[in-house]
Amino acid sequence: MRFEVISIFPEYLAPLELSLVGKARARGALDVRVHDLRQWTHDRHHTVDDTPYGGGPGMVMKPGPWGEALDAVLAEGAAAGAGEPVLVVPTPSGRPFTQRLAGELAARSWLIFTPARYEGIDRRVIEEYRHRLELHEVSIGDYVLAGGEAAVLVMTEAIARLLPGVLGNAESHRDDSFAPGAMAGLLEGPVYTKPPVWRGREVPEVLVSGHHGRIARWRRDEALRRTAAHRPDLIAGCDPAALDKHDLAT
Ligand code: 6GU
């Protein structure tokens, strides 16, 4: 998969060299390219922003550099046979980034992220490319960041771990909170490891019982309890039949 990022702070994307995404890169599952937007400016000060039409606070990113950057990145990827491009535009006014969207994006061959600073990018850039390719305006949550770069790190990590061969154990995202499948719609419950007693606190007896049916039911109950406490909104959308199936399958 080809991951491209166009940013005025390419150094901010350095963590893409590390950990899981870095490992995926090293083994060739991911081709990551980070571009400096200022490459596509032509004035001495490499200007990327200007004052907003209609007035108001803050600055808006000029359409010129973004248009040239996207045209260049799209042409180069097309020449390299990268497939159909998907443009991901991080913005607090986008639609929510979810596990489902991460899964959909993980199935694509070429993603281009355009994190913005200031008050965002001139709207005409989004209108221009929306008609030329698949484009998603995406938010990672109900709070405002100073720029989209941190959101790109979040999204690329969520997507990269779904690529084949990136996680050590393909089973390890089956029960993830939000993963599609048996525990869909519930948060994950608590986990334990050795020693069996730590500071006088014992591991729940059921987990050492060896009784797989009881363990599955306990995990389901704990997941329900935690979801009710932290995310009551998710309980309404959860399918009781899927929970019973989880009990039987495990
Ligand atoms: Cl994608 N960008 C910014 N600047 N703030 C955000 C966001 C994105 N998602 C949530 N807050």
Report on this model:
One of its GO terms (cellular component) is cytosol. Helices cover 34% and strands 17% of the residues. The protein is an alpha/beta fold and 250 residues long. It has two domains: 2-160, 3-Layer(aba) Sandwich (Alpha/beta knot), CATH 3.40.1280.10; 176-249, Trp Operon Repressor, Chain A (Orthogonal Bundle), CATH 1.10.1270. The longest helix is centred in the last third of the chain and has 19 residues, at 212-230. It is elongated, with a radius of gyration of 22 Å. Bound molecules: 6-chloroguanine. The site of 6-chloroguanine has 12 residues, from strand 5.
Key features of this structure:
alpha/beta; 5-stranded parallel beta sheet; 34% helix; 250 residues; two-stranded antiparallel ribbon; Alpha/beta knot; binds 6-chloroguanine
Number of strands: 9
Low-confidence stretches: none
Q: What is bound: which ligands?
A: 6-chloroguanine
Indicate the CATH topology of the largest domain.
Alpha/beta knot
Reported CATH architecture of the largest domain: 3-Layer(aba) Sandwich
Task: Give the N-to-C terminal Cα separation.
Answer: 33 Å
- Quickly name the level 1 CATH class of the largest domain: Alpha Beta
Report strand %: 15-25%
Task: Give the H and E element order.
Answer: EHEEEHEHEHEHEEHHH
Radius of gyration: 22 Å
Question: How many H/I helical runs?
Answer: 8
CATH-defined superfamily of the largest domain: SPOUT methyltransferase, trefoil knot domain
Query: Going across the major beta sheet, what is the strand order?
Result: 2-1-6-5-7
